[in-house]
């Protein structure tokens, strides 16, 4: 989760987010190089006293400064396209979880296990414990096994929402009457925090998302208890 003074991206908890972080660093490096080159050229123009009285055209330099940006864009576009296809890939998911956005809470359905269903509301400030995070913790977390392929099927019951967990690299729009899907794998046991990232009404800020990534053996115990309930 994001903490105070966090300047960079959150620590990745999935291979998808690792690839997104690599692409961010790759693109940022290109932008830094361009900024330094342009800054150096502009400073040279400001402080240069020399003039060329007979300079009327420069076809070679115009060819160079047309081709170089095109090559730079190719170096950004190719990794970006590769990443788009990786994000859309869904490979033999272990578990499918359906989440539905409401005003202003999330509901989850584990249809692989006798249709286990529950709602997830934000914990109000007056009911919080010392270990709860304000505006981020919920009463019922979405529990997933780590090192397992998870397929999220996302929809909405009223208006457009967006199911987002940054450290997983997942952002899926929840649209009424439409099913969108995303696939991810959590790489460690942890708590993953997110929020709705589509403005959906007055209490848009108060429908957080919490995913609890646990070992597969503990997940089997948890789902067994939920089925008994």
TrEMBL record:
- Domain named Cytochrome oxidase subunit II copper A binding: which ranges? 92-225
The membrane topology noted for this protein in its Swiss-Prot or TrEMBL record is: Multi-pass membrane protein
Cofactor stoichiometry and binding? Binds a copper A center.
Residue ranges annotated as coiled coil are none
- What's the domain of life for this entry? Eukaryota
Its localization reads: Mitochondrion inner membrane
Q: Which GO terms describe its biological process?
A: ATP synthesis coupled electron transport
Q: What GO CC annotations are associated with the protein?
A: mitochondrial inner membrane
Main localization is mitochondrion
Q: Identify the keywords attached in UniProt to this record, alphabetized.
A: Copper, Electron transport, Magnesium, Membrane, Metal-binding, Mitochondrion, Mitochondrion inner membrane, Respiratory chain, Translocase, Transmembrane, Transmembrane helix, Transport
Q: Which PROSITE patterns match?
A: COX2, COX2_CUA, COX2_TM
Q: Where is the Cytochrome oxidase subunit II transmembrane region profile domain?
A: 1-91
The coenzyme or cofactor needed here is: Cu cation
TM ranges: 27-48, 60-85
Q: Which reaction does it catalyse?
A: 4 Fe(II)-[cytochrome c] + O2 + 8 H(+)(in) = 4 Fe(III)-[cytochrome c] + 2 H2O + 4 H(+)(out)
Q: Which InterPro entries match?
A: CcO_II (IPR045187), CcO_II-like_C (IPR002429), CcO_II_C (IPR034210), Copper_CuA (IPR001505), Cupredoxin (IPR008972), Cyt_c_oxidase_su2_TM_dom (IPR011759), Cyt_c_oxidase_su2_TM_sf (IPR036257)
Q: Name one GO molecular function term.
A: cytochrome-c oxidase activity
Q: Pfam families this protein is in?
A: COX2 (PF00116), COX2_TM (PF02790)
What job does this protein perform?
A: Component of the cytochrome c oxidase, the last enzyme in the mitochondrial electron transport chain which drives oxidative phosphorylation. The respiratory chain contains 3 multisubunit complexes succinate dehydrogenase (complex II, CII), ubiquinol-cytochrome c oxidoreductase (cytochrome b-c1 complex, complex III, CIII) and cytochrome c oxidase (complex IV, CIV), that cooperate to transfer electrons derived from NADH and succinate to molecular oxygen, creating an electrochemical gradient over the inner membrane that drives transmembrane transport and the ATP synthase.
Q: Which family does it belong to?
A: Belongs to the cytochrome c oxidase subunit 2 family.
Q: How does it assemble?
A: Component of the cytochrome c oxidase (complex IV, CIV), a multisubunit enzyme composed of a catalytic core of 3 subunits and several supernumerary subunits. The complex exists as a monomer or a dimer and forms supercomplexes (SCs) in the inner mitochondrial membrane with ubiquinol-cytochrome c oxidoreductase (cytochrome b-c1 complex, complex III, CIII).
This chain belongs to the protein called: Cytochrome c oxidase subunit 2
Q: Which gene carries the instructions for this protein?
A: COX2
């Amino acid at each position: 989760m994001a903490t105070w003074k966090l300047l960079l991206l959150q620590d990745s908890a999935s291979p998808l987010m690792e690839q997104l972080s690599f692409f961010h660093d790759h693109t940022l490096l290109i932008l830094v190089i361009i900024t330094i080159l342009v800054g150096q050229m502009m400073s040279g123009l400001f402080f240069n006293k020399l003039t060329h009285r007979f300079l009327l055209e420069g076809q070679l330099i115009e060819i160079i400064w047309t081709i170089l940006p095109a090559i730079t864009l190719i170096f950004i576009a190719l990794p970006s396209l590769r990443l788009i296809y990786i994000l859309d890939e869904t490979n033999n998911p272990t578990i499918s979880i359906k989440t539905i956005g409401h005003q202003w809470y999330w509901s989850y359905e584990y249809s692989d296990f006798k249709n286990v269903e529950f709602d997830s509301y934000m914990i109000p400030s007056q009911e919080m414990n010392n270990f709860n995070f304000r505006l981020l913790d919920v009463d019922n977390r979405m529990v997933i096994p780590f090192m397992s392929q998870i397929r999220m099927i996302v929809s909405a019951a009223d208006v457009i929402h967006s199911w987002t967990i940054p450290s997983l690299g997942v952002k899926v729009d929840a649209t009424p009457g439409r099913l969108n899907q995303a696939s991810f794998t959590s790489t460690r046991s942890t708590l993953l925090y997110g929020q709705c990232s589509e403005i959906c009404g007055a209490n848009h800020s108060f429908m957080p998302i919490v995913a609890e990534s646990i070992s597969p053996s503990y997940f089997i115990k948890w789902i067994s208890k939920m089925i008994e309930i």
